[in-house]
Specification:
The structure is a single chain. Strand 1 and strand 2 form a beta hairpin. The chain is of the alpha/beta class. It has one domain: 3-Layer(aba) Sandwich (Rossmann fold).
């Protein structure tokens, strides 16, 4: 396995497939998952001739489990360390959920200023701000995220199973085509990581205001979201992203859930490919 060592000594697991001279696509996973959540996308884009890269966020998957740094600044800095180590240029950065926040912070702070980013894709992503505040009345009440923390601390295994079997993939909807292997794979990825990283990561994905990150990005950005996302409601996220970004293309999918990269990869992958090839 390949690891990149960050400035604070954290070991970040990296998966790097494909020709080194091909255009790179780097995938940034959601909470509390790992690079494995991008299997469908990595195989698809590898088959299209791209170099595909994904890493496990600190405290997630196969990366080391430090007691500090579970915040969006460190997530972006760690992504920067991977990009620098692999010397990725003209890259497309694709982020799902919390990974979308990681992409926004990385592109704004590192990737675009250094001229390493060609485009970005935000899928069911958390920016600009998830939590409800006086300035963000459309957000999700803090009590919901406190409930996440309480459930995780009480029984992480049960909480993760409830998320995967319920709202994440829309398996709680009437008539849903429930996949037990998909639920098991989500649970497996989550339980591989650090309970501390997952606990503190809730604050990172819900309370980080990324308005200025979005405003700073000028490269083309594809914003994708399902209108039946029960985890990150699209009205308070993707719609606002498209308004704040300078060069955004917004696409809302009717009836698609938060985990649409898995449930509807046959639609999402070609849409991302078409955007990259524009």
């Amino acid at each position: 396995m390949t690891f990149v060592i960050t400035d604070d000594g954290t070991e970040i697991y990296v998966r790097d497939w494909g020709p080194r001279d091909a255009q790179p696509i780097m995938f940034h996973h959601g909470w509390p998952l790992s690079a494995d959540d991008w299997d469908s996308q990595m195989l698809y884009f590898l088959g299209k001739g791209f170099r595909v890269v994904a890493s496990d966020r600190r405290g997630h998957g196969r990366s080391s489990q430090p007691s500090v740094g579970h915040d969006m600044d460190h997530y972006a800095s760690d992504a920067h360390a991977v990009v620098e180590h692999l010397d990725l240029r003209n890259a497309v950065h694709v982020g799902h959920s919390t990974g979308g926040g990681q992409v926004a912070r990385y592109v704004a702070k590192y990737g675009e200023p250094q001229g390493r980013v060609a485009k970005a894709v935000l899928v069911s992503a958390v920016p600009p701000l998830m939590v409800q505040t006086d300035d963000n009345p459309e957000g999700t009440p803090l009590s919901v995220f406190d409930g996440f923390r309480d459930a995780l601390a009480a029984n992480r295994a049960e909480f993760f199973h409830d998320v995967a079997s319920g709202p994440f993939y829309g398996f709680n909807r009437p008539g849903a085509n429930v996949s037990e292997p998909v639920i098991a794979n989500w649970w497996r990825q989550g339980m591989t990581g650090s309970a501390l990283a997952h606990y503190e990561g809730i604050k990172a994905f819900s309370e980080t205001d990324q308005t200025e990150d979005l405003k700073a990005i000028s490269v083309p950005v594809l914003v994708l979201h399902g209108d039946d996302d029960q985890v990150v409601p699209y009205e308070a996220s993707s719609v606002k992203q498209a308004e704040l970004l300078r060069n955004a293309t917004l696409k809302i999918y009717e009836g698609y859930p938060h985990g649409m990269l898995t449930t509807h990869a046959d639609v999402i992958n070609p849409d991302i490919l078409a955007f990259i090839q524009q």
